Amino acid sequence: MSASTAAATLSDSTKAAIAVEVARYPHKKTALLPSLKLAQAQLGWLSRDTLAQVADLVGLPHSHAVELATFYSMLFTEPVAPVRVEFCIQLPCALVGAEEALSKTAALLDVAIAGKHGMRHGHTADHQIELHGTVECFGSCHRAPMCRVGVDYVENLKTDDDVKKLVADLKSRAAASKS
Ligand code: FES
User: Fold this and answer.
1) What's the CA gap between 177 and 73, in Å, rounded?
2) pLDDT given for residue 118 in this prediction
3) Distance 35 CA to ligand 1 centre (A)
4) 140 lines ligand 1 (CB under 6 A)
5) What confidence score (pLDDT) does residue 111 get?
6) Mean pLDDT computed over 142-153
7) 14 Cα to the center of ligand 1, angstroms
8) CATH annotation of 83-178
9) What is the mean pLDDT of the chain?
10) Which ligand 1 atom is the nearest neighbour of the CA of 92?
């Protein structure tokens, strides 16, 4: 996944994948969310122009795409770092060390976390990796503590080795996004 400009256009392969989603569902509205995810997977985030392109491909008013993109937290309507990490700090995760996992990850990446509870964030000096502490439950409480890296879940972040492995993966993703 890579960041892109507002003028970016969807690739032919993304358009084809969206057409598959549209054909899959009897109601166009149902195809909108997976189509927006496909667009974001290609472009990194969803500009107003991209939302309009997707809405046109699905056959819905542009306002439907805007409403959906601004409702779901996993859809980004502003540019984000190539590697975006969200730690769940809801109570079940907090009770088993979510704060520690976030702090250790930030320390290993030399990231200063700022902001208030549930709205904290920081990024690496090169802006390649963003860390967020969020109060949103990702539905993976049984494998807490956990974080979401893009759309991937990294779970059971219980030990220092677990966190070191996560950090190595984040650095690897950041390096891959530059190439
Ligand atoms: S409370 Fe963290 S995933 Fe549910």
Assistant:
1) 22
2) 66
3) 26
4) yes
5) 96
6) 93
7) 32
8) 3.40.30.10
9) 92
10) 1
Could you give the C-alpha distances from 26 to 30, 60, 113, 114, in angstroms and in order?
Answer: 8, 14, 45, 45
pLDDT at 178: 80
The pLDDT, as a whole number, for residue 147 is: 96
Give me the residue spans of the domains in the chain. 12-71, 83-178
Place 7 in a pLDDT band, splitting at 50, 70 and 90: low
Cβ of 92 less than 6 Å from ligand 1: yes
Partnered with residue 152 across adjacent β-strands are 149
- Ligand 1 centroid to 20 CA: how many Å? 32
Closest ligand 1 atom to the C-alpha of 91? 1
User: Measuring CA to CA, how many Å separate 67 from each of 32, 47, 74, 141, 176?
Assistant: 11, 13, 13, 28, 32
Nearest atom of ligand 1 to the alpha carbon of 140: 3
How far apart CA 84 and CA 1 sit, in angstroms, is: 10
Beta carbons of 85 and 148 less than 8 angstroms apart: yes
**Equal fold, 12-71 vs 83-178:** no
Question: Quick one: average pLDDT of 68-86?
Answer: 91
Which one is the CATH code of 12-71: 1.10.10, 2.40.160, 3.30.70, 1.10.390? 1.10.10
In this prediction the pTM is 0.75
